[in-house]
Amino acid sequence: MKICHFLTMILLAICANLDAQNFDDYFYFYLPANDTTQQRFLPPFPIQPIEANDFVTIDNQGHFAVRGQRIRFFGTNSVAAGAFPDQSNAWFVAGRLRKMGFNLIRFHHLDNGWSRESLFEWNNDTRHLNPETLDRLEKFIAELKRNGIFINMNLHVSRTFNSRDGVPHADSILNFGKGVTYFDPQLIELQKEYAEQLLTHRNPYTGLALKDDPVMAMVEITNENSLYRMWRDGSIRARAAGGDFPTRHVKLLDQQWQQFLQEKYTTTQQLHEAWDQGTREPGNTDQIKDGGFETAPIARYWVLEQHEAAKAKMFIDDSQPFSGSHCARVEVTNVDGTNWHIQWKQVNLTIEQDSLYTVTFAGRSEVKQNISVNIQRDVSPWNVFYSVGFQLTPQWQKFQFSFRASETSQRNVRLSFVLGGATGNYWFDEIHLAASAISGLETDESLETGTVRRIAFSECVNFSDPRVSDMSAFYIQLSDDYLTEMANFLKGTLGVRVPLVGTNWNIGPGDLVSQSQLDYLDNHAYWDHPQFPNQPWSATDWKINNQPMVNDNNSGTMARLLGGVGFKGKPFTVSEYNHAFPNRYQTEGMLFLSGYASFHDLDGLMFFDYGGSRDDWETDQVNGYFSIHRNTAMMALVPSCAHAFRTGMIAPARETIELAYSPADILLLPKNDSGNWSGPELYPQKLALQHAVRNVSFNSHLNFDPKRFPAEPTPPYQTDTGEIIWNTTGLLTVTTDQFVGLSGFLNNFSGHNAGALSLKNASGFATLTWVSFSGNPLTSADRSLITLSTKIQNTDMIWDGTSTLHNNWGKAPTQMYPVVVRLGLNIQADSIRVFPLDETGNKMGPYQTYLPVGKNQFEITCDQYRDETVWWGIEKWGLGVAVPPNQSTGAFPAEWNLLPNFPNPFNARTHIHFQMKSKAWVQLEIFNLNGQRIRTLLHAEKPAGTYSVMWDGTDDCGRSVSSGIYFCQMKTLNYCKQQKLLLVQ
Known about the structure:
Blueprint: H1 2-20, E1 56-58, E2 64-66, E3 69-70, E4 73-79, H2 87-100, E5 104-108, H3 131-146, E6 150-156, H4 185-200, E7 216-222, H5 227-233, H6 247-265, H7 268-275, H8 298-301, E8 303-306, E9 311-317, E10 327-334, E11 342-351, E12 356-365, E13 369-377, E14 384-392, E15 397-404, E16 409-418, E17 424-435, H9 465-493, E18 500-501, H10 509-515, E19 521-527, H11 558-562, E20 572-579, H12 588-599, E21 604-607, H13 632-635, H14 638-646, E22 656-660, H15 663-667, E23 692-697, E24 717-718, E25 724-727, E26 731-735, E27 739-745, E28 752-754, E29 757-762, E30 765-772, E31 783-789, E32 792-795, E33 811-816, E34 820-826, E35 831-836, E36 848-850, E37 857-863, H16 864-867, E38 871-877, E39 897-898, E40 910-916, E41 920-927, E42 933-942, E43 945-951, E44 964-972, E45 975-983
Parallel strand pairs: 4-5, 4-21, 5-6, 6-7, 7-18, 19-20, 20-21, 22-23
Antiparallel strand pairs: 1-2, 2-3, 8-11, 9-10, 10-17, 11-16, 12-15, 12-17, 13-14, 13-16, 24-25, 25-26, 26-27, 27-30, 28-29, 29-34, 30-31, 31-38, 32-33, 34-37, 35-36, 35-38, 39-40, 40-43, 41-42, 41-44, 44-45
Helix pairs in contact: 2-3, 4-9, 9-10, 12-14
């Protein structure tokens, strides 16, 4: 028995190790970085230069528009070095972006201070633009403009202010000045100076400054920079107190707070009368048993919960306790990448709905470590009532947080310390949980002496509503003032004509109330973003979870990214999104975002990122977590997803859930916040997987009522259009007339139907799309494209387990993992041809002809072992079996007839309709004015019925014909008729 168990453990270890290693079966499929060609079997993205009157505006429906016509942006990010290609390379970088389907580039980290690839000169001030990199940027912009690609210009992103700028104590400003850039007058003026330099400089390649150039579609004022969010996260404190601010900025913020109060209240007495409403004394019953670890064995009241490979031990420790003679020590000996797999907890606690509670504890760790502390149910469904993060250090610190209970739970609540982030020792002492006090103005505070302190977000439940309202209003006003000042400068002083956005990575209504003042809303999200346990952005010490989002029952990124962020009547974009490499399931991200963003009727998507070092756009290697430009697994899906999103193939929601907040709702949010890292839970978040969810007011006269919403949906999640179904057992399906997408463990879903496509069987995880680009449904499209994308790796890439590569990224070339998929296709045709396509999208090798296995039913196999491609072009021949045209009456046509085509005149394509009164051979041909036959559209035997054939303005060789008059001729038995067609290219 022991031997069998031992062998079993060895086999499991080997399997786990093999699963993490590189795959042995692979093929090479390098998408050339300099390929700008257009191909017959890729969606058409022709060169359409941006003209003088093509400024982006906002139409009456709240969408981006150009010349009165709505435009949707499918974009990506050019980051740091990627924004400054050599002049000799700019043409093909822009051309390839256009070919693949991108029509927007977001310029990001142009102001970075970590490299020479920046708009600032290396080791110099940040008040003068670098003429060399500016020239490369402007050449790139000119090439983008020529290819019809708009730009999103970011202003403040990663600028590192320094002493040469005249900024005092600049080396103490962390995180690129986030937060302080909102209220430091000097830094605001420096932001204006930079904007003026960048947006008013005349581009020698276009002859225009950006502010006057329609190539600039939008301007972003500051990236992922929210004063309100920093307050919520506890960052608006001095660095010595665990925050991010230099002492001088803490003092400046304190001064502005005192001024805010003095303008509102004038005297301490008035402030006291306002703030002391609703105060109360603290409770005296501590629910934590032996929180000082002085009276009992640790296991009597404390429980160590461990999952999977994560391991830890708990002890009573008498070395250096915070108080008394003893403390608790938890030794974490192994972690597995999932923090909650180790939880140290006390259970059997009780909470009562709407009551306030305060938790206090002392803690320290061997080295700096981040932990989280949760109050949640200890039984299913494991609801988390409050969660908050803290950083422990080798020195004892006292921590405190308070929360309002959202339900009553008798003796089934736990207080848990989540310690699975890193190995090492953690010490705790003096842990308490009791009913909270509610305070107003404290005895040592005075308006006249300027000693009224700013309370932390986590303290707000311990203070009266008026005090919390004022604290919220202060930070919101600072945000309002900053964004208003910058917007007035950009539009009023500089004359910027295009829409503006404030920032992104929003944290709920407390943020959005300010953001909604500007022209549009924006948001960011990532699935499986790399984690850095000890050193931010370490090249070696990082990890991912390496799990698929398609299996996540908690809605992954989609619900919070798209639901409750947009504002009715304003455009809404996502300017950063990705499923980070080397996650083995990352291709799902392209379909998830394209599908759900279409459903939420977004106006722009920008995947992060399309980068490259200055002189190397072409090496076939993935060299970062987010870079997609040399990642075939991601880029292969771009043409089909871009075409579907830009042309609106996926329908928007039928129902929109509207969110209206009163000013009191927003100002008192800190007292109703669960502490969730991604924002407050104000309504059932998963409703965004079923309906659209938009804000409509932040000034409602009625308070927000969470009880009025429908019940939260459960898996499988289905949109109200029926077009998107997310089965969390492993499959995402997007089904429309012109586009079908599947992503997930296709091997587990044999027999799954998605409109005109049925999945017969498959050999593994993959993302598959099938798209029409003739404007016809897939069932009648003359040409369509199937994309099959799996996973990618660099040659000699080395995994350590399943969660990291450290810095063993490998080398060129990249390798694709092959999958075999057998599909059923419903196409109205007599036969179809399936062409494997090469790296440029051109036909390669022999094609296969398939005959129907049933009425308009074809079965094909996409075999990447055989074809070594990610793309297959499909061309249909003949009209297949007709569906009786007059289904309402059941009648067949009484005569032969060639009907008028529509549209006529036409530009890209027209539909030719004809009737057959009985079964016969029919011939449909296109002739020019000289009587020369240029295209045979049909030569086949057809039964009685009414038919439609599309002509796309090409000849029999697939070449576009010139504008002019053409004739369509129908011949069958003794019937012959011509119809005039007018083509306007």
